[in-house]
Write a structure and sequence with these properties.
The chain is α+β, with helices and mostly antiparallel strands and 180 residues long. Among the domains are: 31 residues, no CATH class; 34 residues, no CATH class; 46 residues, no CATH class. Helices cover 22% and strands 15% of the residues. The protein has four helices and seven strands, in the order ααβββββαβαβ. The strands form three sheets. The chain has a three-stranded antiparallel sheet, with no helix packed on it. The protein starts with 13 loop residues before the first helix and ends with a strand. The mean pLDDT is 76.
Length: 180
């Protein structure tokens, strides 16, 4: 095994021992032997491009691999359209330009062109059409029910402290509590 000479102990053999040690990693002309320094022994960012062999520099600067050989069954310089990737019905129209002329919600009509929201009158919701919510007879019954409730229940608006001060709230009274 190669070693460094021991000072004061390798008289007359000192030069031969040192040369044997150095020839483990150096060539006879003093350059490093190939494979002596592993990648793990080199700190990141310590070797500049200028220090690399010309062939390695060329390979690094060539842009890498040539790319793919085909895309979606096409070869050569390929330009894809939205139809090629299943997006034929997609466009880049802004939301403001999209058609939103009229949409109808329950009891509401929204007009995108006029930017309005309007209530639908209760009368238009009654009678024969299958799009109506209830019949005339049902409207009459609902009106009678409302009248009966109005006669039986009264509403009072008060603060929480006023409500808390009541000794016994009445059952037929609707109490509406407002902020103090």
């Amino acid at each position: 095994m190669s070693r460094l000479p021991n000072p004061g102990g390798d008289d007359d053999n000192w030069g031969g021992i040192l040369n044997d040690f150095l020839l483990q990693s150096l060539s006879a002309d003093g350059t490093l032997k190939s494979g002596v320094v592993s990648a793990g022994a080199i700190a990141d960012g310590t070797i500049s491009e200028a220090k690399l062999e010309a062939a390695v520099q060329t390979k690094l600067n060539s842009g890498g691999t040539a790319g793919v050989s085909s895309v979606n069954t096409r070869t050569g310089a390929v330009t894809l359209t939205k139809s090629d990737v299943g997006l034929a019905n997609v466009d880049n129209t802004s939301d403001a330009a999209k058609n939103s002329a009229a949409a109808t919600l329950t009891n509401k009509t929204i007009s995108g062109s006029a930017n309005t929201l309007n209530n639908i009158s209760a009368d238009s919701l009654v009678d024969g059409s299958t799009n109506r919510l209830y019949t005339s007879a049902e409207k009459t019954k609902l009106g009678g029910l409302q009248a009966a409730l109005d006669a039986k229940v009264t509403g009072v608006t008060m603060t929480q402290s006023e409500y808390d001060a009541l000794s016994s709230p009445r059952p037929a009274q609707l109490y509406i509590i407002i902020p103090e």
